[in-house]
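Input for the complex:
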Amino acid sequence: MIDQVVRLLGYDFAQNALAAGVVIAIVSGVVSRFVVARNMSFGVHALAELGFTGAAGAVLLGVSPVGGLLTGTVLSALLIGGLGVRLRERDTVVGVVMAFGLGLGVLFLTLYPRYATQAFSILFGTITGVNSGDVVVLVVIGALTLVGLAVIYRPLTFATVDPEVAAARGVPVRALGVAFLLIMAAAVAEAVQVVGVLLILTLLITPGATAERLTASPGRAIAISVGVALLCVVGGILLSLGANLPVSVFVTTLSFAAYLVARLIVGPLVLGTDRAGRGPEPVPGG
Amino acid sequence: MTEPAVRLDGSVPAVRFDDASLAYGDRVVWANLSLAVEPGSFVAILGPNGSGKTSLLRAILGVTAVTSGRIQVLGGPPHRGNPGIGYIPQAQAFDRDLPLRGRDLVGLGLDGHRWGIARPSRERRARVDAAIAAAGASAYADAPIGRLSGGEQQRLRVAQALVGDPRLLLCDEPLAHLDLRYQQEVTELIAAWQQSTGRTVLFVTHDVNPILSIVDRVLFVVNGRWAAGTPDEVLTSARLTDLYGSHVDVLRVHDRLLVVGDELSSGFELEEPHHLPEVHDEPGGGAAAGMTP
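Predicted:
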């Protein structure tokens, strides 16, 4: 099996997959931290499914599915952001937009006569199918996403963990919510390349959720999240090359394993096991 | 509390309301509010739930605009992100799994509104450490904030609000959901800061008792009407009866004030009285008479 992996790594498709995978993992790891902290699992899922609609539409029109995917996620991010970023409204709006978008996706698939392969790769990922042109596109999108996140990092953190005080300090909480939706749209379009629409949460939730079991430091949490995402994607690609099974199978397995280990074994050792949310006893006299 | 905008000695009120009113549609929250808050004073903003205490702070923060009239904050119009203001919001527990330490919360109070990524520096760390130490929170500043008790979280909130060295501290029910001991500790913390720096504190609360001994002035808001003055002037049966428009008794029991009325629950946790005359235009009068323009 190792011989086979080494042999396959000599091919362009495997190298392209690894190069794209590293970029995608870094983006997913960073964005995942904020997705978890902002409680936006449903939003991520919706953006991915609407990206699917965009990609299906692109296939129907005979243009690039990646472009269609990105168009789908960005348009939906703007729509969701425009219709409501208030917390109570958000899930409802996401659900309403997602249902309509998926309906369109079904229509596009039905209209396209040979949809099966295309649909399968969008739904479950095609990372070993990316060519060097795709890698460049993915690197550029990934780099832009990371730069955007770096620019808004501090106020976004403030608005995420402490929105009331952030607003009082002049942080544009609502605008940052929309900006983060756009960053999420780009990250979703990237991660779909590896694990597809249906398994998107394995890269945009699990790494961030794993990290928060291991540290209380926001900076370290992002580093751990990126580390977990890299382990899953690179490990998943290598295992897939050796076992002739889809990458998604291994990425989802590795990320679930990382989460379980963090939650059940390492986390309790590092952060303690208290479950009631009670802190340590206060120091008498302060 | 009725002073010209700039006094003869050149000092400017920390906050000045000029015939200010706030209404949402037909609902008048407060009307014709005119008062000047002396720099260095500790002002309690009292009133039943829903009487617009929080919206008063929001107006000072520049988050809510008044419907008519004018507000001056630290000598200028209110604007979001005023660096002269520290703010302690109503206590809301943090998620216990949130990767955030008390030290990070305090750091956000210092520079969380700036773009980019915080660059660690010795000076930044020293300021954060000093604010945490002053709040007596050093022992747990590196623990996940969601796993601390409400009182511990509130001490860190105080550090977060004070780390930027504000001239005006706004507190919105900072003692709510705290047990008596923590109420006392947090009160002492804020009072000690106020007394050592001579800065101004506006303290919204539904129960004046924990802060009664340190309050200089009281602003009482009920159903669009208001009264202001010293606690002894405002917290009397006559003034509150006038303000509520129904009979109210203010009792002093063991150094605690109890407000009891026909439509009120006992104690200071006032509820909205049920049948009030619709009076929006008349300020409390007396010690808080309107200002000359």
